[in-house]
Write a structure and sequence with these properties.
This protein is α+β, with helices and mostly antiparallel strands. Helix content is 25%, strand content 40%. The protein has a seven-stranded antiparallel beta sheet with strand order 1-7-6-5-4-3-2, with helices on one face. Strand 5 and strand 6 form a beta hairpin. The mean pLDDT is 89.
Length: 143
């Protein structure tokens, strides 16, 4: 199920990507994430393996596509954990800043399947709250 969320951030694409391209920052703007980072060395790119921890559960992800430049696009596949599927970021320059989209096309696994459509509604709402929190964080930082 798709759970994309978009906001406009009054910062440059470079500034926004410098922040979201560092997975260790996820703990500051993504709800429930208690730890996040990289398992692979080097900068974020195709083949990079990262992780997020929510409570005691860890889920790994792998970057499957990456496009740099004025329009930045990153896609990853969730490799394990309670949610399977794909996610990513889209950063597009717009007048006065960056349009940032958190892309999520996921399917719950295990007991989360029991939540059915409510899982999508909750996820969509949470993703929108998360991108708004990201906007607040970045706009409060000096450029």
């Amino acid at each position: 199920m798709k759970m994309d969320a978009t906001t406009k951030i009054a910062r440059s694409v470079e500034t926004v990507f410098a922040y979201v391209g560092d997975p260790s920052n996820d703990v500051h703007w993504r709800t429930g994430i208690t730890e996040s980072g990289m398992h692979s060395d080097g900068p974020l790119g195709v083949g990079s393996i990262g992780y997020v921890r929510v409570g005691d559960a860890e889920a790994r992800w792998k970057v499957i596509s990456y496009t740099a430049g004025s329009n930045v696009s990153v896609d990853w596949e969730l490799l394990d954990g309670p949610i399977r599927g794909f996610g990513g970021y889209r950063l597009v320059p717009v007048d006065g800043g960056t349009q940032f989209t958190l892309v999520a096309d996921v399917k719950p696994a295990n007991w989360l399947k029991l939540l059915g459509p409510i899982f999508g509604w909750i996820g969509q709402r949470q993703n929108q709250q998360d991108v708004e929190k990201l906007r607040e964080i970045l706009e409060s930082m000096p450029e």
